[in-house]
Amino acid sequence: MSGGVTKQSRVSKRELSTTGLLRAYTPPTRQLEITLNIFIITYNMIFKSYKFKTLISIFFLVTSSAFAQQTESQHTTVGFELDALPYITGGYYGSGWVGHNKMRYRVVVAKISVPDFAVPDGFTNNELQAYAAIVDYFLKPDFEKWWVGTGVEYWKGKIQSDAQLSTVAYDQTVFTLGGGYVWKFYKNFYLNPWAAVHLRIAGNTEVLVDGEEFKPSFFTPEASIKVGWHF
User: Fold this and answer.
1) How confident is the model at residue 75 (pLDDT cuts 50, 70, 90)?
2) Cα angle 229-196-155, degrees, rounded to a multiple of 5
3) CA-to-CA distance for 127 and 155, rounded, in angstroms?
4) What is the C-alpha separation between 113 and 66, in angstroms, rounded?
């Protein structure tokens, strides 16, 4: 009987010790959840690039973060953005983001038709489907004024020669570095002029299109203006 008491006593001490460790270390669960969601979305976008799955992933990221605001700091918010450039070229753009303190975590889905003046001679109809995961840092609080950001994007492209005999697909993974300025013109509605550079880190360096060699750019500059809103 005394042996049973000793065993129970040891278990209790072990449980108390484990409880003490858990109380001593409280991991930043929400930040971890946000980071894991972003990586899951990036995986789906790159390796399972179905629009429906991507939009569902963005929906769950945004809504789960919105519900969590009830227990989180007032410096955490959720927002959405639209970019003018893809729509001007006949494409589309959608972005959802979660912000905490001065950090902003964005996911982007976009389609753009590259203007012919930006396509090498002899080629046309260069279309890009882009998926991105970006992390931004604001120099000021409240997610306004100057920010800088970096991340990874996956571009799935297709192009034709001027003869338009066939359409050839290509893909690129690019590193992105950019920045911009958020101007809040009414409450949390804002305009966001921005610029970025994209550097190819993986993917096709050249493809044959109707016997002609097309080389996707290693370096791509970009600038536009976004309109957005956050809670």
Assistant:
1) confident
2) 90
3) 10
4) 33
The Cβ of residue 190 has, within 10 Å, a number of other Cβ atoms equal to: 20
* pLDDT, tens digit, 9 for 90 and up, residues 35-45: 556 556 555 55
CB hemisphere CA count around 150 (13 angstroms)? 3
Lowest mean pLDDT among 8-17, 59-68, 165-174: 8-17
189 vs 184: CA distance, rounded Å: 6
What is the spatial distance between Cα 139 and Cα 145, in angstroms, rounded to a whole number? 7
Sort 14 into a burial class: Cβ within 10 Å, 0-12 / 13-18 / 19+: exposed
As beta bridge partners, residue 145 has 182
What is the distance between the alpha carbons of residues 118 and 182, in angstroms, rounded to a whole number? 28
Cβ atoms of 191 and 183 within 8 Å: the answer is yes
CA angle 75, 80, 81 (to 5 degrees): 125
- Find where tokens 């893809």 sit: 86
Say which residue the tokens 């305009």 belong to: 191
Asked whether the predicted pLDDT for residue 221 surpasses 90, the reply is yes
Determine the residue type at 35.
Answer: T
Q: What is the DSSP letter of 142?
A: T
The yes-or-no verdict on residue 229 having pLDDT over 70 is yes
For the stretch 55-74, pLDDT in tens is 445 545 544 544 444 444 45
